[in-house]
Amino acid sequence: MKKLLSVSLIGLAVAAASSAQARDYDHVRIGVDVPYVPMEYRTPEGELTGFDIELGNALCDEIGVTCEWIEQEWDGIIPGLLARNYDAVMSSMTINDERRQQVLFSEPYITMPSAWFAPASLGIDEANEETLDGLTIGVQRGTLQDNYVTDNFGSVADISRYSTADDMVLDLDAERLDIVFLDYPIGQATLIESEDGDYTQIGEQITEPKEYFGDGFGIAFRQRDEALAERFNEALATLKENGTFEEIHSRYFGE
Amino acid sequence: MVDVNAWLNDLLAGNKIFTPATMAHYWEGLVTTTQLVFVSLIIGLVLAVPLAIMRSSKRKWISLPVYAYTYVFRGTPLLIQLYIIYYGVVFFDGIQESFLWPIFREAFYPALIAFTLNTAAYTTEIFRGAIKATSKGEIEAARAYGMSESLLMRRIVIPSAFRRALPAYGNEVIFMLHASAIASVVTLMDLTGAARYVYSRFYTPFEPFLFVALIYLCLTFAILFFFRFLEKRLLAHLPSQSA
């Protein structure tokens, strides 16, 4: 009897979950991993800003929904989306096949290469198996940079994985890390343009192979929220046409 | 060896999460966790014995510094202690050039230091409680035999205090194993670190965390049985509590 009851309860829960599928949003909660300068960070006054934040807010205005930003550390950002802690993720997330199996992506809104950064004193001008041999590489846990470095250099170098890019930069400053592998604009902003520390980019910007580096940054939704993703796609197209996208882009990346 | 590999590959084929690669991560994590907990417990135990004797001293200038130490390390979260020792030390000027840097450069040793100091503080208090609980009659009898203070300590107080402390110390060992799960915040690939890595790579919280939870359970049971065995042997002279 008890068993029957629990089975029918589960059935009820499944029915309730599927009826909640087609949901119209007027309030969208967006998950974001802060700080990741210049994509998402807090000003000294504590205000959340950055390219993702400004573009996200403009998209929400265009769609006519209110947006709420919810901070979440990177390594739990997709599970958090699937657990309905928020409805979308806009946090410099690269679109790739592995992630497509879990979430639904919008059209890419920007393409970002990755790059190696190290103290100038390291004295190598290209990152490959020979030059990285025996070095300690810093990456953010669960990023595509992590996967790329783990699969390609995991056998020759030590890999240290961090929850936040900030902790990683701290350990690079502390000389615990020899070299880090980051999204290019983040490395530019936090390492090259910051006054303290003498850092340099090693080698070219990296966008290949696509298996790791994907197709640019996209907004992630739950698989069933196709309507919501479609609304964001339309809004993105509108903002690109009317110049708003260009205006925000130039404020963060020049030209 | 080849057979084992083939067998393992067969066993793990058809799923993405329990692959030979992730198994290697878990194995590395198990080794790191065991090393970290075992070594810090051993050093902590060695430190705790003299500290507990000092802590039980009647002379304030001996007991007070030890009390301050145990108070600070028992009164603050281990996570904070780990953060201070790992991220804090790099703000001392010139640490990178000093002879200490090879120790602090690795994540392992700062974690080991934090864990050791923490467990030593708790163990000191456990032993001190046991020393204090020594029955007056035993001490008076020993004095009547003309034992000096140090002989009294060595032959009467310490052996019986150790036995009395055993159940509480067994708990401390298990707590330490569980507390070691925070080591992954300073990039150490311990069991929890391995689980976090697999979790963030495959976006599946259940499999990796359940899997390492099972490993922690096995370790806990091993510790439990070891201490039960010790208690049976060493506390056999005491009347059974449950009978």
Automatic annotation (TrEMBL), chain A:
Among SMART domains, the record links this protein to: PBPb, PBPe
Q: Which PROSITE patterns match?
A: SBP_BACTERIAL_3 (PS01039)
- The Ionotropic glutamate receptor C-terminal domain, residue ranges: 27-255
Q: Which InterPro entries match?
A: Iontro_rcpt_C, SBP_3_CS, Solute-binding_3/MltF_N
List the subcellular locations: Cell envelope
Q: Which UniProt keywords apply?
A: Signal
Report the residue ranges that make up the Solute-binding protein family 3/N-terminal domain in this protein: 27-255
Q: Which domain of life is it from?
A: Bacteria
Q: Which residues form the signal peptide?
A: 1-22
Query: Could you say which protein family the record assigns here?
Result: Belongs to the bacterial solute-binding protein 3 family.
Name this polypeptide is given: Transporter substrate-binding domain-containing protein
Q: Which organism is it from?
A: Halomonas dongshanensis
What taxonomic classification does the UniProt entry list for its organism? Bacteria, Pseudomonadati, Pseudomonadota, Gammaproteobacteria, Oceanospirillales
TrEMBL record, chain B:
Q: Which PROSITE patterns match?
A: ABC_TM1
Output the SUPFAM superfamilies linked to this UniProt entry: MetI-like
Q: Give the residue spans that cross the bilayer.
A: 36-54, 66-87, 107-127, 173-197, 209-230
Q: Name one Pfam family in it.
A: BPD_transp_1
The segment(s) forming the ABC transmembrane type-1 domain are 30-227
- Subcellular localization: Cell inner membrane; Cell membrane
Cite the entry's keywords alphabetically: Amino-acid transport, Cell inner membrane, Cell membrane, Membrane, Transmembrane, Transmembrane helix, Transport
The answer to whether the entry has keyword Glycoprotein is: no
Q: Which membrane topology term applies here?
A: Multi-pass membrane protein
Can you tell me which family this protein belongs to? Belongs to the binding-protein-dependent transport system permease family. HisMQ subfamily.
* Protein name as catalogued: Arginine ABC transporter permease protein ArtM
What broad taxonomic lineage does this protein's source fall under?
A: Bacteria, Pseudomonadati, Pseudomonadota, Gammaproteobacteria, Oceanospirillales
